[in-house]
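Reading a protein record of the kind used here takes little practice once its layout is understood. An example of such a record is reproduced below.
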Amino acid sequence: MATRSPRARRLAAPETFTSGGIPVRRVPISLARRFFQICTGAVAEGCSAEGLTPLQGGVLAYLNRSDGEPDIDQNGLAARLGIDRASTSQLLDELESMGLVERRVSDADRRVRLLRLTPAGEKVRSRIRPPTFESQMRVFAALSARERELLLDLLVRVIESNESLARPGAGRRKRGYRDGFAKGIPSSPT
């Protein structure tokens, strides 16, 4: 059997494997999506006892006093979570109505709202931290400690080298896409 050149291997149809009986392509987007689903499901297990979503749990993780960043502003939180400012505002409204987060006007700039957990928010964070951490570590149960650290290091390297692509809304259709599509006109040159 002849071996294919590296270029021919790159252009060949992607390999697939089965995950729960479902074929998954062995390409970054498919693997990343599946990994994201697994990690989100794991965190949801730890947050569900408190009636929180994984994203709400993420806010508590970023704003807590012991290992978070209390008093960051709303835009800083949005950047850390990788979501847009409008979604962050809605998320904070929900957590504020639950009595878990408070917003304060910054002394340095009255337009800026600084965020921190309320005492109730700190208590909820301390309750969800152990189960969310344990469930995330179960995701890596198939790996040795060395492999787990290597995977995390590789993920960090990939993320850091692709910062320009890591922005809220990346990959969404542009405004007017459907209008142009209906008329048979692409919204942007290809």
Summary: Residues 20-148 form a domain with the Arc Repressor Mutant, subunit A fold (CATH 1.10.10.10). The beta strands are 16-19, 22-25, 72-73, 101-105, 113-117. The mean pLDDT is 86. The first strand starts at residue 16 and ends at 19.
